[in-house]
Design a protein that fits this description.
Component of the sarcomeric M-band which plays a role in myocyte response to biomechanical stress. May regulate expression of other M-band proteins via an SRF-dependent pathway. Important for normal contractile function in heart. The chain has helices at about 1-55, 195, 290-300, 305-325, 325-334, and strands at about 55-60, 60-70, 85-90, 110, 135, 155-160, 180, 205, 225-230, 250, 270-275. The protein is α/β, with parallel strands linked by helices.
Length: about 325
C-alpha cells in the first residue's frame, strides 16, 4: 500500500517537473517568436525608410516626399524620422488611411494625398498649424473632422470626388485664410453654412452635386470672384446674388434654371457667365458678329446672351402688361 503511494507521488512529481519544463519551453518559444517578429518589423521599417528616403526630393528649397503609382497602403512609423518634410505628394498609391502620427509633421506646408482610397481624416490633422494646402480629392472620405478648423494657415482645401461627402462642420468657418475650396462631385444638397461664412473665400467649386437652390445668404461671400455650380439641379437664383460685387466668373450650365433674374444686370464685375443647357423659358438668338474675335469672346463669356435674355424677358413682361386688362391675369402671368 505504502509502495503504491510512494510510486504515485514519484510519478506526480516527475509529471509536474515535465509540465514546468514544457511550459518554460513554450514561453521561450513564444518569446523567441516575438523577438523574431520584432526583428522582421525593424528590418521592414529600415527597408521602408530607405525606400522613402529615395522618394525625397528638394524643389525650390522645399523638402518633398513624392510617390506616384507605387503601392503604399500604409505608411510606416519610421517615416517620423523624416520630420523635416514640408510637402507630401502621394498619388495613386492605394493609401488606405492618413497615419495617426500626421500631427507630428509640424513643418508640413502641403499635404497632397489625392487619388487614393482614404476613408477618413484623423483628428490629429488639426495640429498642422503651418499647413497651407490640403488636397484629398478622389478618395472615399465621408466626413470632415472639426479639428481641421485648427489649421490656421490653410489657404487651399480640395475634397472633390469623394462621392459620399455631404456636409462640413460649422467650425470650418474659422479658417480665416482659406481662399480656395473645391467640393465638386459629391453629395451636397446645399451650400454648407460653414462655406457661406468663410471670410476670405475667393474661389468655390460645387459643380456636380445635388444643389436645388442657392441660399439668400449667398451674398455673405463678398470676396468670392469665381463660383462653379455646373451640373446641379438649381431651379432659380436668389435676388441677393446681385450683391456679390466681386463675382467675375459664374458657371451655371446643366441646371434646371427657367429664368435669369433682372437683378443680374447690376453685376458689373461679371466677366464670364455660362447658362448653357438650362430649360430657360425664352429662346434668345444673338445676331452674328462681323468680328471673329468678338464672336469667340461672346461665345466664351456669354455676357451678351445674359443681357439680351434679360432685355427680352423685360420686353415680354411689358407686352403681357399692355395686352392684358385683368389685374388678376397680369398677376398670374407675372
Amino acid at each position: 500500500m505504502s509502495e503504491n503511494v510512494v510510486s504515485t507521488g514519484a510519478v506526480n512529481a516527475v509529471k509536474e517537473v515535465w509540465e514546468k519544463r514544457i511550459k518554460k519551453l513554450n514561453e521561450d518559444l513564444k518569446q523567441e517568436k516575438e523577438f523574431q517578429q520584432k526583428l522582421v518589423r525593424i528590418w521592414e521599417e529600415r527597408v521602408s525608410l530607405t525606400k522613402l528616403r529615395e522618394k525625397v526630393t528638394k524643389e525650390d528649397g522645399r523638402v518633398i516626399l513624392k510617390i506616384e503609382k507605387e503601392e503604399w497602403k500604409t505608411l510606416p512609423s519610421s517615416l517620423l524620422r523624416l520630420s523635416q518634410l514640408q510637402e507630401w505628394q502621394l498619388h495613386r498609391t492605394g493609401l488606405l488611411k492618413i497615419p495617426e502620427f500626421i500631427g507630428r509633421f509640424q513643418n508640413l506646408i502641403v499635404l497632397d494625398l489625392s487619388r487614393n482610397t482614404i476613408s477618413e481624416i484623423p483628428r490629429g490633422i488639426g495640429l498642422l498649424t503651418r499647413l497651407q494646402e490640403l488636397i484629398l480629392s478622389y478618395n472615399r472620405i465621408k466626413t470632415v473632422p472639426m479639428e481641421l478648423s485648427y489649421c490656421a494657415s490653410l489657404e487651399k482645401l480640395e475634397l472633390a470626388v469623394n462621392r459620399d461627402l455631404s456636409d462640413l462642420p460649422q467650425e470650418l468657418s474659422n479658417l480665416l485664410k482659406l481662399t480656395h475650396l473645391d467640393l465638386s462631385m459629391n453629395l451636397f444638397t446645399t451650400i454648407p453654412p460653414a462655406v457661406l461664412n468663410m471670410p476670405a473665400l475667393e474661389w468655390l467649386d460645387m459643380g456636380s452635386n445635388r444643389l436645388e437652390q442657392l441660399p439668400d445668404t449667398i451674398e455673405r461671400m463678398q470676396n468670392l470672384h469665381t463660383l462653379w455650380l455646373q451640373r446641379n439641379e438649381i431651379t432659380c437664383l436668389p435676388e441677393t446674388i446681385s450683391s456679390m460685387k466681386n463675382l467675375s466668373t459664374l458657371v451655371l450650365s446643366n441646371n434646371k434654371l427657367q429664368d435669369i433674374p433682372e437683378c443680374m444686370e447690376e453685376m458689373t464685375n461679371l466677366r464670364f457667365v455660362n447658362f448653357r443647357d438650362n430649360p430657360l423659358k425664352l429662346e434668345v438668338t444673338l445676331l452674328p458678329s462681323e468680328n471673329i474675335d468678338e464672336e469667340e469672346e461672346r461665345e466664351l463669356f456669354g455676357l451678351q446672351f445674359m443681357h439680351t435674355y434679360i432685355q427680352e424677358s423685360r420686353r415680354a413682361g411689358n407686352q403681357v402688361n399692355c395686352s392684358t386688362t385683368s389685374p388678376n391675369s397680369i398677376d398670374a402671368d407675372g
